């Protein structure tokens, strides 16, 4: 697999991972608050009272990230890919750190799930940035 394809797949993964948060948070904010991530777990409700505005904003933010990730994956233009990665890091690092230091009410399995899931929004953009800076992949390879 070439570097360009790998970058597209990594950005696609970030977009797909954001989809449930975006769609669920925007269209069913109360359910998102009470039931995320699903399967009998409820991570968001542990942090305080329900706020519809906040839940819908989280949903909309994730939909905006999807647009950015998909645009970067399609174009693989260095400026857009680096902007998408910087956006992921601007959201991902503070979000990850919050959950590192705020684990009350979560089981060890839930903590691993939260941190494991959020680590992708930090690790993948860093790797993508390294790949983009070490390889000239902004233009598709000729067949």
Structure notes:
- The chain is mainly alpha-helical and 143 residues long.
- It has one domain.
- Helices cover 75% and strands 3% of the residues.
- It contains five helices and two strands.
- The chain has helices spanning 3-27, 29-35, 52-75, 78-101, 108-134, and strands at 37-38, 41-42.
- A two-stranded antiparallel ribbon has the order 1-2.
- Strand 1 and strand 2 (41-42) form a beta hairpin.
- The longest helix is centred in the C-terminal third of the chain and has 27 residues, at 108-134.
- The radius of gyration is 16 Å and the shape is globular.
Number of spatially distinct domains? 1
The secondary structure category is mainly alpha
List unreliable stretches of 5+ residues: none
Would you report the number of β strands?
Answer: 2
Whole-angstrom Rg:
16 Å
């Amino acid at each position: 697999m070439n570097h360009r394809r790998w970058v597209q797949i990594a950005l696609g993964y970030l977009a797909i991972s954001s989809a449930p948060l975006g769609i669920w948070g925007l269209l069913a904010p109360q359910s998102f608050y009470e039931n995320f991530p699903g399967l009998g777990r409820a991570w968001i409700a542990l942090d305080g009272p329900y706020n519809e505005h906040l839940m819908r904003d989280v949903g909309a933010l994730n939909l905006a990230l999807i647009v950015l990730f998909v645009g970067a994956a399609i174009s693989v233009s260095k400026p857009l890919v680096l902007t998408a990665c910087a956006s992921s890091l601007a959201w991902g690092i503070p979000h990850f750190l919050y959950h590192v230091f705020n684990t009350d009410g979560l089981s060890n399995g839930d903590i691993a799930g939260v941190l494991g899931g959020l680590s992708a929004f930090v690790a993948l953009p860093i790797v993508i940035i390294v790949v983009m800076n070490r390889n000239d992949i902004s233009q598709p390879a000729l067949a």
